[in-house]
From TrEMBL:
Name this polypeptide is given: MOSC domain-containing protein
Residue stretches making up the MOSC domain: 22-267
Lineage: Bacteria, Bacillati, Actinomycetota, Actinomycetes, Micromonosporales
InterPro entries xrefs: MoCF_Sase_C (IPR005302), MOSC_domain (IPR052716), Pyrv_Knase-like_insert_dom_sf (IPR011037)
One Gene Ontology term of the molecular function aspect: catalytic activity
Length: 279
C-alpha cells in the first residue's frame, strides 16, 4: 500500500466520439470494460486512431484519468481547461498520477466500503445505456499471434490469465495474448495481469478499482481544443526523453460508482517499480 491518497474532483463520460466529455454526477465502472455508457469502453481498443491501426489490440485505455493540478498549471499560462476538457473520465486532486509506477491500483470510495460488500453494492448506480463495445477475440486463446504479443508477457509474470485473474479482466488479457504488441504495450499488459492477480487473490476490497497501465500519448487534437496547449502537455526533459503530461490510462479491475468528492486510495505494486510508458 501507499500512504498517498487523493480525491475525485470530477467525473465525465460521453457515448459519442468527442474530444471533450461532459461532467456527470457519477460514472459507473464496469470491470474489464471501462465506464458504462462511454464510447471508449470495450475489451479491444476503442480510440479511433488505434482502431484504424489494429482493431485487435487490447483496450488498456478503458479509463482516462488526469490530475487537476495540470489544469492549475496551464491556467497560469493562459489556458482555460475545465474538468473533462481533454476527454478524461476521472479528474483527481492530490495524487501525482504521472509519477505512479506501472501496475498501481487506484481504489475509489469511502474506506468502509473496502471490506463491506454490502456498502460497496449500495454505491452502485442504476444502469446507463451503454455505448457499443468491441467483443473479445475467441480465437487464439492465450497464444500470442506473433513476437511481442502479451502471451509471453503474461506467462513471464507467473500469472495464469485463466486462473487467479478475475473473469472480466481475463477477456482483456486474452485479447492481449491474441494480438501482436509493441514492447511498451506488452509491458503494460503484463502489469495489468499482475495487478489483476493481486486483486483476485486479495479479494477483500470491494471498492471500484482501476489498474494504471500507462500514459496517454497527447495528439494534435489538443491544439484544436486550445491552440498552443499541446506543447504544455508534450515535451522533452533535460536529457531529451519525451515527457507526456496528458494523464494516465487504466483498466477496470472492480466495478462500481465513482462520484466527485470520493476518496482515492493508492495501492502500489511490489518493487522494483517501473515508470509509466505510453499506451
Amino acid at each position: 500500500m501507499s500512504g498517498e491518497s487523493g480525491t475525485v474532483a470530477a467525473v465525465s463520460r460521453n457515448d459519442a466520439y468527442t474530444f471533450t466529455k461532459p461532467n456527470r454526477d457519477e460514472i459507473v465502472l464496469v470491470a474489464g470494460l471501462g465506464v458504462e455508457g462511454d464510447i471508449h469502453a470495450g475489451v479491444n481498443v476503442r480510440h479511433r486512431s488505434r482502431v484504424r491501426a489494429d482493431p485487435s489490440q487490447p483496450n488498456l485505455r478503458q479509463v482516462h484519468l488526469i490530475q487537476a493540478e495540470l489544469f492549475d498549471e496551464v491556467a497560469g499560462k493562459g489556458y482555460d481547461v475545465p474538468a473533462g476538457g481533454i476527454g478524461e473520465n476521472v479528474t483527481t486532486r492530490g495524487i501525482d498520477l504521472l509519477g505512479l509506477p506501472r501496475g498501481t491500483i487506484l481504489r475509489f470510495g469511502p474506506a468502509e466500503a473496502a471490506a463491506d460488500g454490502t456498502a460497496a453494492e449500495a454505491r452502485k448506480a442504476k444502469p446507463v445505456a451503454a455505448a457499443p463495445v468491441a467483443a473479445a477475440p475467441v480465437a487464439g486463446g492465450s497464444e500470442s499471434a506473433g513476437t511481442g504479443g502479451a502471451g509471453s508477457a503474461v506467462a513471464g509474470s507467473g500469472t495464469d490469465a485463466g486462473a487467479a485473474v478475475g473473469e472480466p479482466v481475463r477477456a482483456v488479457l486474452a485479447a492481449a495474448a491474441a494480438a501482436t504488441l509493441d514492447e511498451a504495450t506488452a509491458r503494460a499488459a503484463e502489469a495489468v495481469a499482475r495487478a489483476a492477480e493481486r486483486d483476485a487473490r486479495g479479494g477483500g476490497d470491494f471498492r471500484a478499482a482501476v489498474v494504471i497501465a500507462g500514459l496517454r500519448n497527447p495528439c494534435a487534437q489538443i491544439n484544436r481544443f486550445r491552440p498552443g496547449l499541446l506543447k504544455e502537455v508534450l515535451g522533452q526533459d533535460a536529457d531529451g526523453a519525451v515527457v507526456r503530461k496528458a494523464g494516465v490510462m487504466g483498466v477496470v479491475l472492480r466495478g462500481g460508482a465513482i462520484r466527485p468528492g470520493d476518496p482515492v486510495a493508492v495501492e502500489l505494486p511490489p518493487g522494483p517499480h517501473e515508470p509509466l510508458e505510453r499506451v
